[in-house]
Amino acid sequence: MRVVPNLYPAFDGDGELSVDHLGPVFTQARASGIHEVLVLSPDHEASWADLDEPQAGLVMAALRDRLEEHARRPHVRYTQAIVNHGREAGASIAHPHGQLLGVPFVPGELAEELAGFVRFGESCLLCTTAEAELGSDHRVVYQDDRVVVVTPFWSGTPFEMLVIPLTHEAHLPQAEPRDLASVGRAIRDVLDRLRRVVGDVAHNVVIHTAPHHHRDEGYHWHVHVLPRLTSVAGFEQGTGVLINIVGPERAAQQLVATD
Length: 259
What we know:
It is a single chain. This protein has one domain: HIT-like (HIT family, subunit A), CATH 3.30.428.10. It has helices spanning 53-71, 108-120, 125-136, 177-198, 234-239, 248-256, and strands at residues 2-5, 19-23, 26-29, 34-39, 78-85, 97-103, 140-143, 147-150, 161-165, 203-208, 222-227. Helix 1 (53-71) crosses helix 4. Helix content is 31%, strand content 23%. By secondary structure, the chain is of the alpha+beta class. The protein is globular. The chain contains six helices and eleven strands. It starts with a strand and ends with a helix. A nine-stranded antiparallel β-sheet has the order 1-4-6-5-10-11-9-8-7, sandwiched between helices.
């Protein structure tokens, strides 16, 4: 695999975040930061679902190494790792690849997640979720001794999946190599199952880790797998309320049935 600079970066440059107020409701800031492309495989026809076990582990190791490098940049506060598969999911080229975007702020989605972990209380939200899901076994799609994948109880879209490392760690770069390898293998496995159930559907893989230098260890890094099987219509856009036409229990049953 290879990691290369994006030719058309959304974020570029070493400047710190500087906000300009141009008027009563006009605020802008320069998009400084880092934008890189992860070429997942030399095979043009492959996707993450087609990677063998060593290659899937190599992808996760490369993510760890690049996140460590991003953290050394003084003005990069958070790095978002994503894989967009299919045009409907935002992929502009067909060759299997992911992207790393190091930005000089903590995005709102991450800030809300961090706040959610704090609101949950003294125990970890995802450790509790993993324990409860393994206990009930209604929505478990994949598990081994290092990771569990579930169709979460709060799924907003059909066949949405959540990959939870069983070892609590806030920062992906600090995860044990075997945990990273297990997560890479789990993503490969569930994407293959998804393809067998609904076909080669467009999807997004979104990796969430704590912001660089974030000191609160209550967060738990994880991965969202988001198939693009339905469109976001006016009600969803107007209210932020998602309508899921395939319940998570039914989705899990279909995904498990591919074994």
